[in-house]
């Protein structure tokens, strides 16, 4: 039989959640990743980690298939590698299951829209890039995007531009002296 807790012991235990102790706080590595990629919530990083873990597990299972399933293994591996390359998670030179086994959450974070804006030199830093996206200054193809968590595939990377009515676009055109007379009416 366990004794009844005293008042101060109950008060201390209110702050401690023994069921979900893992969610107590992010580790130092997670904090670095959150800052480096400008993630607003830790749950996004946890989701990217789970996706990377699933892909690594799939690559490991494909690698460990028996010798009688060479054709199936080759077909599935090529489809997996093709999709990962199309998403931009693998670098162009990497084309093996070993590259899939090294996949991390950082690869997903690098494909987020603010990171792509930074790589395209459309923003000075990640914080400004995320602000531009939230304010509606950026479009991907014909659609205006306001969610910085959008993962941009490699095929759509060339179609990331400013919105036509964006003041930032007008400032860039004025600076480069490329603004058209037709745009002045808009």
Tell me about this structure.
It is found in: Nucleus, Nucleolus. Pfam families: Ribosomal_S4, S4. Keywords: Nucleus, Ribonucleoprotein, Ribosome biogenesis, RNA-binding. Part of the small subunit (SSU) processome, composed of more than 70 proteins and the RNA chaperone small nucleolar RNA (snoRNA) U3. Component of a heterotrimeric complex containing IMP3, IMP4 and MPHOSPH10. Interacts with MPHOSPH10. InterPro entries: Ribosomal_uS4, Ribosomal_uS4_N, S4_RNA-bd, S4_RNA-bd_sf. β1 (138-140) and β2 (143-144) form a beta hairpin. It is built from 10 helices and 3 strands; from the N terminus they run ααααααααβββαα. It folds into 2 domains: 28-108, no CATH class; 112-176, no CATH class. It has helices spanning 7-15, 28-37, 42-63, 70-87, 97-101, 105-110, 113-119, 126-135, 167-175, 181-185, and strands at 138-140, 143-144, 160-162. The protein has a 3-stranded antiparallel beta sheet. Helices cover 54% and strands 4% of the residues. 16% of the residues are buried. It has 186 residues and is mainly alpha-helical.
